[in-house]
Amino acid sequence: MIVVITGIGWVTVAGMGRGREHGSFAMIDGQLPKFDRKAAFEKPYQHFGRMDEYSKLGLAAIAFALKDAGLDEWEEKRDIGIIASTVYGCLSTDIKYYDTVIPEEGLLASPSLFAYTLPNCFLGEAAIRFGLTGASFVVNEQALSGLTSLRMAVDSIAWGESETMLAGVCDLGCPPNFVVPGRAVPGAVFFVIERNYNRKCSHYGELLLDKKGAIFFKGCEIEDLKELVRKCLSI
Amino acid sequence: MNDGKRENSELRTRFQEFGTQNSQLGIHNLEAATRNPRTGTQKQIWITDVATVTALGNNLQELWQRLLAGQTAIKPVTRFPVHNYNAHIAACIEDLKPLGGRSMVQILLDQLCNGMGPVPSDSLLITATTKAGIDSFERLRRGIGADSQDVLPSRIPDMISQKFGLACKAINISAACASSTIAIGCGAGLIASGRAETVLVCCVDLVTEFIFSGFSCLQALSPVPCQPFDRDRRGLTLGEGASALLLMSAERARQENRSFLGTILGWGVANDAAHITAPARDGCGLIQAIHQAFKKAGLQAEEIAAISAHGTGTVHNDLMELIAFREVFGRREVPIHSVKGAIGHTMGAAGGIEVALGLKTLAAKVVPPTVGYCNPEKGAEGVVSPEPEDMVGDYLLTTNSGFGGVNAAIILGRGSID
Fold it and tell me: B361 to chain A nearest CA, in Å?
C-alpha cells in the first residue's frame, strides 16, 4: 500500500514546528517548552485552556501537522482519523485526578480532570476542533518507534475507511517521582498521510507499507519515526 | 421525541451524502479481502476459542445461562468506601482482591487465560484496557506497596504473552469503552490482510475507586441498577471483567481442526467530532461505524438479525443509539439488547465480553434479555425486551461507544454448532 506524506507537526524538547516552516527537529529527552494556545492556534480556542497537559501536547502537534498539510481549515466534517502511540499516556493527569480523590474520600473528585484520564481523549479534542470523523484510538506500547500507529493508519486507508489519516506519537514521559517501567522521551509528532494525492500542495514523498509490515520511504526502510521526519525534512 | 424525529430527518440527509461519498471510494487493496460471505470468496476470520470472566460468571457458559435467566451481578460495593458518591453499587467480581503487591488485573487475567485452550505461539496479540492495574496505581499514590509494573496499559500484553509463550511484539488499544471492539477489528484486519494467521485479543478492566469516583463526579452513575433503554433510566452501573478471543484465518483453523464458534464479517470505527464525554445526539459517528462494518461484510441492513447495543443506561447514550439504529434500519424492528443491566458497564472490556456473548446469541438463536428494562423509552417498544427472544437470521451487529467521541461496530456471523 502506498500513501503520501503531506504534513508533519511536532512539539518536542528541542522546539515546536511543522515541516514546511521548520527550524530544526530533534526528539530528545528533557523539559518540554511551555506553550499556550497562541503557539498552536492563531484564533482564540477556549477549550485549549482547560485541557490537561497531555492533551495540549498532542493537540498542538496535530494542529501543526494539519496546518502543514493545508487541512487545518474546514467547513464540513472530514473523514480523517487519528492513531497515536504512547507509553505513559495520561499518567500525569491520573496522578492529578487521584490526588483530588484521596482527601475527603472522594468529595473533592474533579470531573474536569477525570474527563482527561483516558489517553484517547485528546484525539476527541482534535476531532472536535478540526471536524475529524475517522477512526481514532491510542496504541499503548512499552517503547516508541512510532511506526505502529503509522502502520495502522496506512491499513485504515487501505481498508477504504478514510482517504487521509493522522499518525504519530504523544508522550509526556514518566512523571517525576513515579517510577514506572517504560521508555519514551517527551514530545509529540504527527504525520498526515493521504491515499489519493490530488491536492495543490507539495508532499514529502511516498510511503510504502509492505505485506510484512515493513515501512519504506523513498525506497529506504524506516526504523523509527525520528528517522522518517529527518528524511522528510532532508536533514 | 420531536427532537429525535427532527434529528432523524436531518440524519437521512447526512446518510444520503455518506452513501454518495462511499460509492466514490472504489476498490482498494484491503477492501477486496472481505466480501459477501455467501459468495465463498471471502477471506474468513473465524473465532476459534473464547473465554470470559465477569461478575455474573467465571466462564462464558455460566455467564450466558445466568444472563438468560435474567440475573444481575449488580450489588453494593464493599471494595472501597462509596458513601460520598452518588451510587453505591457495581458489578464487582466476588473475592477479587489484590494478592501481595500484584494488581487485581493480574489475578483476573490468570483466571481468564486458564479458561482458554492452546494458543499458537505465532499468534499476534492485541489487548484492550483503559486503566490496566489502576488498583496498583491507587496503592502507590497512597504510599502502600504495590507493583508499579502493573500500572501502564502497555504491560497487559506482556502479562498475557508470558502466559501463552507468544513471541510477537504486542500492543494495547485504548479507546475508552470501544477499546476491545476496536482491538477485535484490528485483529480481524490483520488476518484479512494476510499479515497474520492467528490473533489473540484479550480485554480487561476493573472497578476501583479511581474509576468509580470519576463517573460519580461526572454524575453518570445510576443510584439503582442501570436500566438500559428504559424511560426511567438514571445512568450507568460500573462492572468489571475480562474476555479473550482467538481469531484465526479459516484456512489455519481448518488445518488445526479448531472449533468454528463464529466469524467476524465486518468492523468499523468512527468519531462523532462533537463532545468529549457525551455522544453526538444524532448518532453520526455510530452510524458511520455501522456502515463501515456493512461495507466490509458485504451485507445490507435488512440482513442483520439482532443488535447487541452499548446500552449503558445513561439518558444520552441510549437515546443516541435508538436514533442511530432507526436511521440505519428504518422502520424495521430489529431486536436490540444490552447486557449492562446484568454485568454492569465493563468499560474497555465491554466489547470483548459482548462479542463473546454474541457468539452464544448466534449459536442458540436467542436474543438475551435486557436486564433492568421495564418501561420502554420511546423507540424501544417492541425491539427491546426484558425476556429472551427468538432470533431469526444469521448476523449480529454489536456496537460500543466511548469518551472522546469514539464509536465502533462489529458484525458477527454464526459458526458451526458441531
Answer: 28
Q: Which domains does chain B have, with CATH numbers?
A: 45-255 (3.40.47.10), 265-414 (3.40.47.10)
Please report how the helices B155-164 and B104-114 are oriented relative to each other, as an axis angle in degrees rounded to 10: 40
What is the interface size between A and B, counted as CB pairs within 8 Å?
199
Q: Do residue A159 and residue B172 have CB atoms under 8 angstroms apart?
A: no
Residue A136's CATH number: 3.40.47.10
Q: Do A137 and B182 touch (CB under 8 A)?
A: yes
From B304, B336, B293, select the one nearest B45 (Cα to Cα): B293
Residues B282/A133/B37/B396 CA torsion (nearest 10 deg):
-40
CB half-sphere exposure, B20, CA atoms < 13 A: 6
Our count of domains for chain A comes to: 1
Range of the domain at A87: 2-233
Q: Do B149 and A181 touch (CB under 8 A)?
A: yes
Asked if A138 lies within 8 A of B296 by C-beta distance, the reply is no
> For B247-304, what is each residue's pLDDT tens digit?
999 999 999 999 999 999 999 999 999 998 999 999 999 999 999 999 999 999 999 9
Non-local (6+) Cβ contacts of B161 within 8 A are B125, B168, B170
A13, A185 contact by CB (below 8 A): yes
The predicted complex's ipTM stands at 0.96
Give the three cell numbers for residue B147: 507493583
Q: Check: pTM over 0.90? Answer yes or no.
A: yes
| Cross-chain CB nearest to A87 (options B140, B154, B178) | B154
